[in-house]
Each structure stands twice: as C-alpha cells, then as structure tokens.
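Hello Y.,

Per our agreement to keep a running log of every chain we model this quarter, I'm adding this entry. I've kept the format consistent with earlier entries: sequence first, then predicted structure.
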Amino acid sequence: MELRTEAIIDHPRDVVFRVYRDKLPDLIPYLPNVRGIEVKSRSEKGPVVELVNVWHGGGDIPAAVRSILSDSVLSWTDYAEWNEDEHSCKWRSESHSFKEAVDSRGKNLFVEQGPNRMVIRIEGRIDVDAAKVPGVPRLIAGKAGKLIEGFLIKQVQDNLQEVARGVGRYLRETGGR
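Predicted structure for the entry above:
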C-alpha cells in the first residue's frame, strides 16, 4: 500500500535535516510514543551517511499493557541512507516481530519552503503478507494484510507529525545543540 505524508517545520532545511540524521536519540524527551532509539552503526562516505537505528516504541502505552507485549512487537530496525547533497533519506524498516511478513521502505525528502520553513515529505510503501503472520488463516490473509497495511500507514503518518513537532520543540529549546 502506498505511503505519502508530509509535515511542515518552521526552521531552516539544513538544520532540520541534520537533526533528523544526527540527533534522533536526543529527541526522546520530545517523542511520547518512543521509549528509545539506539544507533547501531554509522558510516560516512562524502555527503552520504548510512545509519542503522533500532527504535523502541510504546512509550505512550500504559506500562501494564506494555508488560504483556514483547519488546519485539514494539521495536523495529531502520536502515537509512542520508544524502546531504539531495537533502533526502532512503530507508527500509524491519519489524522485529514479523520480519518476513512486512516490507516497509521509502524516501524522505527535505524541501525548502523559505529561509526558516521546510517540509518533509515521505513517499514509500508498506506491504504486508498476512499469510506469514502466525495465527492468521490463509482464507482471510489478503483482507487482513490490507487492514494491517492501513493501520501501519496511519501509524507512520502520525509518527511523522509527532517527530516533526518534536524536532521543532527541540530546535526552539536547544537551538540545535
């Protein structure tokens, strides 16, 4: 299923791009539904930075409910290639609980809208093969997959807005330091 969404941030594009690429773990206090972001690897080749980050979600889920869910259900690994010349990021996310069933990938574009305003656009896909999810009967796997895709796309759209608000707050409070 196609994923398209965008968010406006009232700060210069270069600053916002670097915060998204380099400061994600510093944003945790500004992201209520994220419990942690671990940088697993980083490599730089000129204007291109490759990052592998592990996200731990569920910060907004009550602790009692979170204790029932395994960490793998609430975590994912993000593989990203940041290109500073293009102000873009190609990404692929891998769920820790249903790796074989979910394919999530796309590109973020950081587009200048003026000296102190930019928009981040996400274009990508989330495809779910529910037949590969334990417990889902084959008979309803196609319909279940579409429902899961819709749910995940809504989560990504909401998360983009939350991260954009968090980046804006972070920049206002810290000046990007």
